[in-house]
Structures are given as C-alpha cells and as structure tokens.
Amino acid sequence: MTTSSGLPFPLGVSVGNPNISDPDAEAEFDAANTQFASLMGAQPTFMNSSVDSSQLVTDWDSNVEWSATSAAASPTFQGKIPTIALPMSSTAAGSPSADQMYKNFANGTYDSILQSMVKSWADAGFMTQVWRPGVEMNLADSTSFAGSTAAEQADWVAAFKHIYTVLHSAAQADGVNMTVAWNPGIVNFSDIDNVTQTLYPGNAYVDTIGVDVYGDVFPYHDGSKIYDWDKSGQELNSPNPVYDTSLAQWDADPVNLEHYYTDPASSEYSLDDSGGSALSLQDIIDFAKTTGKPIAICETGAGNTLDDGSNLTDNPTFVQWLSSTLANAGVQIQYVGIWDSDLGGNYAFSAASDDKPQEAAAWAKYFGVQSAAATDPATAPASPPAADPPAATAHTLTLQMSEDAYKGDAAFTVAVNGQQVGGEYQTSALHSSDDANTFLLTGDWNSGVNDVAISFINDAYGGQGLDRNLYVNSIAYDGVTYAGTSASMPGDSTDNFSVGPGATTGTGPADNLTLTLSEDAWQGNADFVLYIDGKAVTTPQVVSALHEANATQGFSFSGNFGSGAHTIGIGFVNDAYGGSDSEDRNLYVNGVTLNGSDIFSGDQALYGNTTSDFAVTTSK
C-alpha cells in the first residue's frame, strides 16, 4: 500500500554518523542525508545509530550520550526516530568473553548502563526509540553472535529477555515510546541452525521482527563453471546442468540474481541447504505471520564492491526483487532502512560519484516517491536536480496492548481516520502481569487531531477464568501519550480514541513513581501491591533487599494519574510470623518519589498485612 506521499513503505536510512565534535563531519553527514532525501523525494522517518562495540561496556553509556547529542545537533537527524544497534559483547581489550557478557546482561550487571543509554536519547529530545539488541546474532562475525553451543545460545536468549525488560522499564521511567526488535541477518549460511526456533525469545519479549538483508552475491560454481539457474530451469541437481563461464555472464541474467535472493542457500558452497543452514527473507516473513509481529527491514543495501563475490557494482535487480517481495509479504512492514554509506562496505548510491546510476534510480523508483524522475532504472539519472528536501509528513502511533489469554492470543486491527493500518495484530503480554506489548505504526496522518479505532476481533469464553480479552494500555502520537487512551475490551467491539495536537485529552509524559523498599525475610520474601486511589494497579511484587543489612530495592512505575489529589498505597500482602523476631516476615517503606519530588523518606514498617498510604497532588 502506497502512502499519500507516494512512499510504499516508511523510510529509514544510514548515511554514516553525525559528529558534534567535528563541524566538517557534521556538515558532511547532513549533506549526505539531504542528498538521500532529494533522490527519494521524501525525508526518512528512521535513522540508524549504533553503540560502539570496540569500547568497554562501561563506556557504552558515554558513547551513546555523545551519539545522541550529535544527533540532536544535526538538523537532518532532529525529529527522526533513532534505530539503535546494541551489541551484546565488546571487542575492547580486557572485556569478558561474549558468553560471560550474556550472563552479565541476564543477571542485571549492566542494567544501569542500559537505563543510562535510554535516558541519553530521551534527554536529547528523542522520545520514540527503536532498539536492536543482539543485532545479527546468527552471524559468527557479529559482536552479538549467540555462540555455537546450546548453553551459549541459552545464555544469549536469557540476556535478550532481560535487556528487553530493562529497556521497556527505562522507557516508562523516562516517558519514552520504546520498540525492541529481534534482528537476525539474512545470509547464505547462518552459523546457527533453525535461528527462529533456537534464538527467538518469545512473543512477550519482541515488539518487532527486524532483518538485515543485503544484495551481496556469491553464486554456486564448479571450478570456473557457474551454475545457471535460468538455463537449467532452476532445478536442483539438473541432469543436464548449464553453466556460465564468467560471473559477468551469470549476473547479467536477473533470473539468476532473483533465484539467489529468494533461495540464498544456492551459494558458492552448494545448490541447496545441504551444505549449511540458510536463512531467507521469506523464512522471516513466514515466521512473522505465525507470531503476529510486524517486520522492519533494519538494514538493506546492494552493489557492495568490496565483498560482493560477483563484483556486481550497480545492482537494480536486488532493489526491484526486495520491493516485490515486501509488497506481497502479507505482513506489516514498519520501515525499510536503506544503507547509503560506505561504512562497512561500498553501499553508497545516491551521489553521482558513487557510480551506481541504475541502482540509485531503482531505489528512488521502488522505495521513494513515485515520480517521472525515476520511471526506468535503466535510463534514469543517478539523482534528480538538487532541491531542498520536502518536510517530513510521517507520524508515529505507539500502542501499548495486553490481554487475558485463552486458547490463543487476543487479535486486533487498527484504523486511523477510517483507514486500516496494516493487517491483524496479536498481543501476548498478560494484563494480569502488568505487562504490555508495544506496536509502533507510522503513516501520513494529520498534524492535528486523529481518530484511532482499535477493534478486538477474536473474543473467546469458556467459563469462569477462561476468557480471552483485549486491553488498550495507552496510545502515544508522535511521542506524546494521551489520557483517555486506555480501555478494557471484554468482547468483539471497536473503541475509538482521539490523539494528536488539539485533542482535548492530550497530556504530557506519564507520571513517574519510584518506591524504595526493604524486608525482613522468613520462609520467603515480602510481597507488596501498589494501589492508586484504592485500586490495585500491579500484581504482587517481590522485595528481596534485607532491612537488617541496610539494603534497599527500587521499583519504578509509570501512568497518567490525572491532575488533582491522589492516594498512593503500598500494601503488604503476605505477612508471616513464626513466634520470634527471627521468624518474622515484614515490609519496610524507605522512600516514595513522584515526578522527581520526594514524598516520603524514612523507615516506615509494615508488620502485618496492611497498607501505607501517601497523599500526593499532581498538576498534569
């Protein structure tokens, strides 16, 4: 479906990195981004960034602070959504092994670093963020490679789950709309068999399935003979194979290229996947359909003259094949992030000096605004005449959704101003666990008020406690969360919400509540429930910090309380006593902070199942 501005999919790009420390480098970055936007006929909505894996993990937060500050200083990065590649190991001297770092992530050693990185982007003004932990984890040369043993891969999955949880918790604390992508690479041979089954952490820990897919080609050959898929009828092990005698002859036939992209295991090593485990884009599309998750093409590029085995430098065939595959995918495509840079390979194309006129025209035709300047990739110029890029028109809609599950997950559709966005979505986050899945949608919607209609479409009921329900936890538009955008949907129905500037229910970022607690443990830890105005808003939460050791434990919660007076209640719910001071389970409230202001600081003890109440007033 083409957007009203002519873009077939929301657009992303990587043109290098802004550099606030070097005005010339910053200007070069902005010029490259403007050049890309001019060719495509529209500004990108998403901009790639990354955490520097060559630095010690203890330096990652300062590296990200610098990246975010540089992005904020760039006029062509401002207002975009950063898509941040997060490695899960470091190549710096003195770093732990990759597997040990996965264990450290999983046990919380790096939590404060993750939290600091989210806050750095938020402080720089980027209130919608896409994070890609463990990017290209199925490639052995990746700094996130999940390992070759089952134990290492289990450690990687545990780390990803914890990172997902911490990123979302940090986002709530900072008022950020967070999307976390699970992001393998499409390759001839994955270094991990059955990537989707082995490394997928489960729907509850994935918001988007991201993929990196490039047009590099390493065709199958027998000595100097290269198997020609077109002349051999594209049959494996043909009894009368036909071979080409040069790479130029082979890659001049688009049929060979398209077969290779569709079936990447037809590589230099084999005609099928008998020599290894391949991962194709269609594999990911099919997997996304089973999970109900959208797809993001986080990175894509063609014509890599450094590493492309076919030496195909100007490659419009890959671009056209990718466009056709995505158009017929049958799943929501959140964005397509195009690599227009020579960092990591010669993928730049938008400048005439890149010498890729056919490829540049193909990107403009199939992924840019439809225009007369890009009608024929064989004849169109590398870029249209220089012009000021048009203002960005895309807006973002962020849904936080949860469910009561029964015989499957809750499914829903979304319409904005009467037009359906994407297909069917499913949420797997349990409302009873105070959890939510994030759905990030983009479109050319109104700069003012918009109507968002969410339709629950697969209600099911089997008796008491056997009920499938849908919950809308919140809706944000362009980074602003609006009040009045929560709902419980117990049956198939449609709820409408107003969002966008001018909506009477608009609010700023959520209220942020932090509790500092401790316990006396006996036969188990103390549990508490948070109440707002007498209503329980959490399931029982476990406190494990021991009061006698002067230890405390922090808990952060976010929500729009609404302006006026409110009561925060901390309820001790599992008191236990064995007859002596040493056989007594108790809860202690050591601090309560709301929106940065201290409400209580001290040592309030709850010796039985009771609730401590604190009166607050908010002006939001």
How would you explain this protein's 3D organization?
- This protein has 620 residues and is α+β, with helices and mostly antiparallel strands.
- The protein has three domains: 11-219 and 276-374, Alpha-Beta Barrel (TIM Barrel), CATH 3.20.20; 395-499, Sandwich (Lipoxygenase-1); 511-618, Lipoxygenase-1, CATH 2.60.60.
- Helix content is 21%, strand content 32%.
- The strands form seven sheets. It has an eight-stranded parallel barrel, surrounded by four helices. Strands 14, 18, 20, 21, 22 and 23 form a six-stranded antiparallel beta sheet that branches. Strands 15, 16, 17, 19 and 24 form a five-stranded antiparallel beta sheet that branches.
- Helix 3 packs across helix 5 (150-174) and helix 10 (316-327) runs parallel beside helix 11 (357-367).
- The chain is globular, with a radius of gyration of 26 Å.
- The two termini are 39 Å apart.
- The model is unreliable at 1-5 and 371-393 (pLDDT under 50).
- It comes from Acidisoma cellulosilyticum.
- This is GH26 domain-containing protein.
- Pfam families: CBM60.
